[in-house]
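Researcher: I'd like a structural prediction for the single chain below. Treat it as a standalone chain; there are no partners to consider.
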Amino acid sequence: MRPVVLLTLLAAMLLPGTASASELIDRNASDVELKVNGIGEALLSYTKAGKRKHVLVWGAVNALPPTPGRPQVSFKLDYAGGWGKYRRALASTFRSACGPYTGPALAWFVTACTAPDGSHWAVQAWQRALPNYGVPASAERSVWELRLSHWTGELPVLSVNPNWAYRRFDHIFGSFTYKGVPVHGFKSTPQGVPLDTYGRNLYVDTFNSAYGSGWKRENSFLMHRGNGKFCYGFYRHGSRPAGMGTKYRATIIGPGVTPDVMWEGKPLGAYDKARDLGLHEQQRSFFAGDGLCKPV
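Model: Treating it as a single chain, here is the predicted structure.
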């Protein structure tokens, strides 16, 4: 029996705004190498703080639809290969049968391959834990998370629609689905932190805004329970200025062990009353029965 070490997963749950993400492997890694053998095991090797690490991963593919009382699929992780003779033996004897990656383009791409059974394995890395409203990040909050996925077939779908709020602020609304089914959780804190393995937060960034040049984190928030939908306005929050930028992006952790998905787009531009009224009707129809996202 392989020892399964869950320290990394437990550490992930201490950072704000995430579900128990099974694909989180480590943070601030470099020189990443992915191997997958013929029996569905992956060996992820990387360098961290000057040391070479090896993590053996197996036991999961794709995702379950939101299901009360049943945990989401998750990898089994063996970090015991990170030390001593076992590490060196594992790295030298593990034979990869994974071929060139033939799957769809991925955001935050590090490396990927396609296994003999046709399934895809991929590694992504992005800064999930950045503080909201463009606040400068500490070393702990600016880490790049190394995330592993394993899937077949279609990717999760993040739909984002731009509109306006209060006739002058940029606004977005949309949904997150997997195989046509909304992605959402069943329990969360009042602050929007998922308390189960199904809930997902959307991490929204703004470019060249009042926060400064380049990409800055605007906010992160939970997909609505039951329908996997969301809405958000780029107006003032407390003492922080309105985070409207010249473009926006939104990243979300895939359900189960599917890849993380990112959308990028531009705001609508100068306010257009007739168009705004039409978008209000679209939003009302989209959120029928929701009650949390009324056009303003």
